C-alpha cells in the first residue's frame, strides 16, 4: 500500500472513499464532519438519517465505521468513523486504531482502492497530534486490506509535518504531497 500525505481540504479529494471524522449522531458537526456535510450536500445527511432510523438509533459507536453516498463530493463514498475523545486518565488508543481498521474494512467492502483519511480525533477531541499520527500510520501499515493508496489529508502545516515524521519519509516533509 502507498501512503500519501496531502496538505489541504479532504472534501476536495477525488478518491474512492473519504473518511469523515464524524460524531456519533452522524448528523453533522464541526471540523471535518461539518465540512463533509456542508460540501457533500443534503444527500449525505439523508443517508445518515436513514442509518440512524434503521441500524444506529443510539448513534454510531466509537471506533466503528459505516459508509454512505458522497453526495456532491468528488469521492464515490464517505466512510463515517467516530473517534475517541482523548483522555489523560484512560488509554483509548485501541479505539482510535479501530477507527482506521474499521474504515479500511468498510473500504474493502465497497471495493475502494483509494481512501483519504483526516487526522481522526486530533481536532476538537483533543488527541495529541504526534500520538494520533503514530497510531494512524502504524494501524494503516499493519492493516490487511485491498486498498492500494491511503492519503492522509492534513489541514495545517503542523499536522502535515507531524504525519511526515510518523511516516518517516524525508521526501514527505518537503512538498505539498509526499509518498512512502
TrEMBL record:
Record's keyword terms, sorted? Hydrolase
Q: Which CDD domains match?
A: Macro_OAADPr_deacetylase
The record places domain Macro at 1-171
The record's Gene3D superfamilies line, in alphabetical order, gives:
Leucine Aminopeptidase, subunit E, domain 1 (3.40.220.10)
In alphabetical order, the GO MF annotations are: O-acetyl-ADP-ribose deacetylase activity
**What top-tier enzyme class does this entry carry?**
hydrolase
Tell me the domain of life.
Bacteria
Q: Which one Pfam family would you cite for this protein?
A: Macro
Which Enzyme Commission numbers does its entry carry?
A: 3.1.1.106
Q: What is this protein called?
A: O-acetyl-ADP-ribose deacetylase
* Lineage, highest ranks first: Bacteria, Bacillati, Actinomycetota, Actinomycetes, Kitasatosporales
